[in-house]
Design the sequence.
């Protein structure tokens, strides 16, 4: 059984990364940042169950020629079951498009047990949302403490 839970999928997303993307919002986050834009996604028992059928459809969607890349957001992707790692590996093998991931962990504090997923992610935006550092001018970030790390350049 696939144990990921998810809040929503956006099928043609231009708000979370460059280009046209498929975005997966996973369910569950224990950072509970003040002012979080997505508090409905905190509960690890909320959202919907990710099934094999949903995953197969998701993969097919990501393969569409008009889709440039894939975004994985939350909730907190790095507090998910290892099935998220399996999904990312499958995306790399079958879709072969860039994958971006947003995490509330600071890059240097990503738990060792979760670091393997970095091998398959092309771009990571790190850091919790800090309301006092909120800046509407930032692109694809909520607060100015968050940074973008690119595979092959930063890690
Ligand atoms: S890490 Fe993201 S999803 Fe989690 S509480 Fe903070 S802003 Fe919300």
Sequence:
């Amino acid at each position: 059984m696939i144990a990921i839970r998810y809040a929503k999928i956006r099928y043609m997303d231009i708000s979370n990364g460059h280009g046209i993307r498929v975005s997966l919002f996973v369910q569950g986050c224990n950072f509970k940042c003040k002012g979080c834009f997505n508090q409905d996604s905190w509960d690890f028992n909320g959202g919907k169950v990710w099934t094999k059928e949903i995953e197969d459809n998701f993969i097919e969607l990501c393969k569409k020629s008009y889709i440039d890349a894939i975004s994985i957001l939350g909730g907190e992707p790095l507090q998910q079951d290892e099935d998220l790692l399996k999904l990312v590996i499958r995306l790399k093998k079958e879709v072969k498009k860039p994958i971006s991931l947003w995490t509330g962990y600071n890059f240097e504090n990503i738990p060792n047990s979760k670091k393997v997923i970095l091998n398959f992610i092309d771009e990571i935006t790190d850091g919790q949302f800090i309301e006092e550092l909120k800046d509407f001018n930032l692109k694809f970030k909520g607060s100015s403490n968050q940074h973008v790390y690119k595979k092959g350049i930063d890690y």
